[in-house]
Amino acid sequence: VTPGSSFTASVTVCNQGIQAGSTVVEVYLSADTTITPNSSMGPPPDTYLGYASTATLSAGQCQVLSVVGNAYPPNTGAYYVGAVADPQNGMAELFEDNNTRAGTLVTVTL
């Protein structure tokens, strides 16, 4: 990946709850496996790439989303592509600790 280039991340979102719902999924580049969404608490440690919204998912249902974004990391090097479902914690959930996942490691070069 080169800075400013467009790429697509494939993200699988599953509803592990007991009722139907939909959510937003944000994708980030992170220097570590801890994916941190944007918030009002200050500058984010990870680089935002883009987002997509799911359809309404029944309990146990999954959906594959394509998230298109442009890479603008602060430096060249290795980064994890990670996703955050319900990034602002706006939905009541049975499990609040399963909303982030670090995925593929990519290299950003000039």
Describe this structure in words.
The protein is built from no helices and 6 strands. The chain is mainly beta and 110 residues long. The strands form 2 sheets. It has a 4-stranded antiparallel sheet with strand order 3-2-5-6, with no helix packed on it. The mean pLDDT is 90.
Low-pLDDT segments, ≥5 res: none
User: Order of strands across the biggest sheet?
Assistant: 3-2-5-6
Mean of residue pLDDT? 90
Strand segment tally = 6
Largest sheet, if any?
4 strands, antiparallel
Gyration radius, rounded: 14 Å
Alpha plus pi helix count: 0
Label the overall shape: globular
The string of secondary-structure elements, in order, is EEEEEE
Q: Strand fraction band?
A: over 45%
Terminal residue distance:
8 Å
Helical residues, percent:
under 10%
Structural class: mainly beta
Topology:
Layout: E1 6-14, E2 24-30, E3 47-53, E4 62-70, E5 77-85, E6 100-108
Antiparallel strand pairs: 1-4, 2-3, 2-5, 5-6
